Structure prediction request, 347 residues.
Amino acid sequence: MNGWPRAHDSFDDLKALSVQFGADPMHIQGAGGNSSIKSGDVMWIKASGTLLADAVKKDIFVATDLRKIRDALRAHDPIADQPAEFLLPGGSGLRPSIETSLHAVFSQNIVLHSHCIHTLAHAVRQDAKALLASRLGAFNWAFVDYAKPGATLARRVGAVLKPETNVVILGNHGLIVAADSVAEVETLQSQVHAALALPLAPVLRPNLNTLAQIAAGGKYAPTEDLALHQLALDPGRLRQVTAGSLYPDHVIFCGIAVVELMRDQTPEQAMAQAVDTGAPPPVWMLSAEHGALVRCDAAPPARIMMRCLADVMARVPTEARLTYLSSEQDIELLDWDAEKYRQQLNV
Prediction:
């Protein structure tokens, strides 16, 4: 970062914190999540498409003009949704996170945004607010309904913030914790995660022999990840995950919802049916009572997000009523230039 404005004294601590949570898939999966640190009118934030787990060994933070971001948000200026507009000179060529404006609305110096599994298991439910209230009474927290990441979400979060608010649950999205020290953020993240902890559902055994016969010689194969199979083995959970999309990163890396392989279909027929609707070839599909098939060429980020969904749903009762993204929300995520850029970097 030679030639850049001097970083906050806690920058090294923030990097260590980012690695700690970024390397733990119970908090952050792949290139998801982001952290930031403010010093005066400068905010350093994770660059889009980079991994928090790499924060110590790679230069993943970029410096942005905090005052300019906040001015753009207040003025409803369209550039508030263009994080690259806020870059300060002397950077690495990377773009700031697509959630830069979200970090800017917090007054606290340190912000960590994660896709905490226990948080998501609450935040996708229709009764999320009541469930969260029963568990987060010891925290200064707020809840914000889903909005596409960017300026709109940032303004909605800003509207509910009080001086003491340091925990925000984002419906169908994740968790934000904020404080004036890295140690406080670390404690908050761990405490919220523990307060929202949910038990795992019993593990069921897939029918691997039948799955292998279904997939023989094709583009899909039975996954080796036992957790993914669970989504197909309980009828209630199968209905939940095939009914719609539950949070943004799944849509970005795995497509809309999950495809169910019907009993009279081959995987190639199910793939062709999906493509005929204008969707890309499914990266995976579920065969009721048998298990999960994953496309042989599925990229690592997609596989990470498949496991994320399995980890979330293993903690959601099969009878729970869920809140899904609308068709319009799915489409706006798939047709988003900022996310296409992140996908290109995170392969």
